[in-house]
Amino acid sequence: MSGTRRMERPAPERPATPTAAGATGAPGSRPRPRRRTVSAGDRAIFFGPLMVVLVGMLAFPIGFALYASFADVDNLFSLEFAGAANYQELFERPADLVTPFLNTLRFVGVSVAAALVLGFGGALLLNTTLRGRRWFRSALLFPWVIPTVLVALLWRWIMDSNLGGAFNGLLAEVGIIDDPVSWLGSPDWAPWVIILAQVWHGFPFVMIMLLAALQAIPDELYEAAAVDGAGPVRQLTAITWPGVRPIFVLVGTLEGLYAFREFATIDVLTKGGPAGSTEVLATQVYRLFFEYHQFGKAVALAALMFLLALLATTFFLRLSIRGDED
Amino acid sequence: MRKQKNVLFSLSVVTVLAVTAACGPDSSGTSSDSGEPAGDITVTSWRFADPSAVGTLHLELIDGFNESQDAINVTTEAIPYNDVNTELVNSVLSGAPADLVAIGPSELASNAEYLQPVDDFWEAEGAEFQDAFSETARALATHDGQLWGIPIEMSTTDGMWFNKDVLADSGVDPEQAVSSWENFRAALEQIKAAGHTPMLFEAANATRMDRHWSWYVAGGADLTDPDQYVEQMCTPESEETFTFLTDLYLDGLTPNPAGIAYDEATRQFSAGDVGFYADGPWAPTTYEAYDASILDKLGYTHLPPKEEGGGYGANVDGLLWAIPKGSANPEAAWEVMKFMSSVDAEERQAANGNLPTRTEVLQSAVVADDPMLAHFGALIDEHGYPRPRADFIGEFKQIFITAYQAAVTEQQSPADAHASACDQLRGL
């Protein structure tokens, strides 16, 4: 449809290309506007502070961290170039990386998918004429404004392994369980509890962003579609989805990055256990650095995480841009 | 197209950085307690700065030091117990360490790189000062043949606390219960049959391994030589201990240890329906904070030996003041350390339920007249061994606790989990 519209659009009229004669000031031609030149000093004034910020806060830390991954940081951060020794050491025991990597994929994949589904559903609901939607809008934002550590502590209390825990207490109250379940002590349950905590904390952000995108879609489009006989599903796929898709991809990417580097929730709830079932790359970096003092391996793994995040972000933003072009 | 690619790449980098900039642990609770202007010395502390009796004592001692002289002004920084290693590494690597830190002796080996030895200071004080501290205490402050601080407190986490009411209701005699593993299991089964929670055992994370060591010692492991840790923990006897501890959960005699850390264990024990729980001499003040009524029901004894009349262990740790590498004022820091470990300070430590490190105080009425302190003192004297310490101990504990978690949650059989842990340990 958009392609058709583009074809029908008349080609923009280009201004006449100045001829050589015109350029030389032939009679009848418009004088060429004088090109304003910006002095180096002006450039420095306008771009200098920005460059300082960019270099100081972005380029330098990245460069330093990437260099450190090739340096002898194990020796009290001596920073002497050491080639790929840190990476070599990191991959000496690949089994130590496989489980955290797979756990990371599960944690990111499931939590982002769930947050997007819940967030989109919530946004659709709040975009209707639902009674009390303003109250719901505020209430549903509540989880998002709580600091991550508090969220983790809250979920630790909810999933406490005795009947004093809110969830166990509730299940016992309604007669589903007799004995408390050790949710955080079970490798079968613990990964899903941290995902649940992550989704609970993250979905309001998705919801509010998608709600903003939904509200930017003109009502006239829905009215016209209704006149043309389009039902709710058709309206959703032909109007709503294209309208929110760029934001959907963007918040999905951001949520993915948040989940990818999530540390506090996991550290407070399970510390990567039990039996390594919730160990992710971020907790592994922390453990290598602060608990084992294996700085070289830690910075090498952190550098790999950065590259992974960069690749994933590039992929999803490219996807978003391609979608816009389509 | 190229321009679009550049924009895309830049956008990606900025997005990743914006999101990952805050990556890492949340800084939790580091704050300056003191409104005083910074003096020559900054004291970084962990649990002393907590709002507990010892926390109050610490601040009182600091104030006392500041009032006692004019040359050195001490300011304090509150470092939560769990953050002390992270803070120490961070501050030394960043070149801005505190002048004094309070750490556990078992963390000396893994943190020695970030501390400076204080043998010269000890030497300069003379024999009288050196001999004032007990042998056990000085051993706690020693690593690799060097002294790394002044110990101010000794303790063991391996006293066995019990709830008198629960045991009475179950018909269990505590001393009979801790006479052997077999009798202990039988007692736990009795408590279970009476409808109570028999015991609590912790394995939620690697630090909880400190509650496991002494069971292996009772099982025959000799954990006095770091070079032998791996070998000692991988004997058939240690596998037997591993299986015994695993079966405690698999047979329903303890709630899932893989989900229990110290705070949860103490909360559950304080609730009053648990038979046994191993903990240190500070336990009553901890439990009291949850439920003061537990104090009337508390009794204490020792861990059970494997066989009747056999040996059992009590891993000894405590607290010492040490000077980080790169401290700007090591001499002044030493003066503060001496004040914090004076006879008066040690007596006040003992009054707070901690075993002092000065022989004079250890043998004084302050300890002798307190049956609980005397009990823990005897445990250390007769069954004490330094809590395992080595530069690889963090990874060691993580591997072993992970294997234990795998066994109790039936991801692996106890034998396989133990063998898998030993394979990894041998690769350290």
What's the CATH first level of chain A? Mainly Alpha
Helix content of chain B: 40-55%
Mean pLDDT of chain A: 85
Strand-and-helix sequence of chain A, N→C? HHHHHHHHHHHHHH
The main sheet of chain A comes to: none
Give the overall shape of chain A.
Answer: flat
Approximate shape of chain B? globular
Give the SSE map.
The complex is a heterodimer of chains A (326) and B (428).
Chain A (H helix, E strand, L loop, with lengths): L1 H7 L11 H4 L16 H29 L16 H6 L4 H32 L6 H13 L2 H11 L7 H8 L16 H26 L3 H9 L4 H29 L3 H6 L11 H11 L3 H31 L1
Chain B lengths: L1 H19 L10 E2 L8 E5 L7 H16 L5 E5 L5 H10 L6 E4 L4 H4 L3 E2 L2 H7 L1 H5 L3 H6 L1 E2 L2 E2 L2 E7 L2 E5 H7 L3 H4 L3 H13 L3 E4 L12 H6 L10 H5 L2 H15 L11 H9 L3 E6 L3 H8 L7 E5 L11 E11 L5 H11 L2 H9 L7 H4 L2 H4 L2 H13 E3 L6 H16 L5 H13 L2
Parallel strand pairs in B: 2-3, 2-4, 10-11, 13-14
Antiparallel strand pairs in B: 1-3, 4-13, 5-13, 6-7, 8-13, 9-11, 9-12
Organism (chain A): Jiangella asiatica
InterPro entries (chain A): ABC_transporter_permease (IPR051393), MetI-like (IPR000515), MetI-like_sf (IPR035906)
Pfam families (chain A): BPD_transp_1
Which descriptors would you attach to this protein?
heterodimer; A: 326 residues; mainly alpha; MetI-like fold; 14 helices; flat; disordered N terminus; B: 428 residues; alpha/beta; D-Maltodextrin-Binding Protein, domain 2; 8-stranded mixed sheet
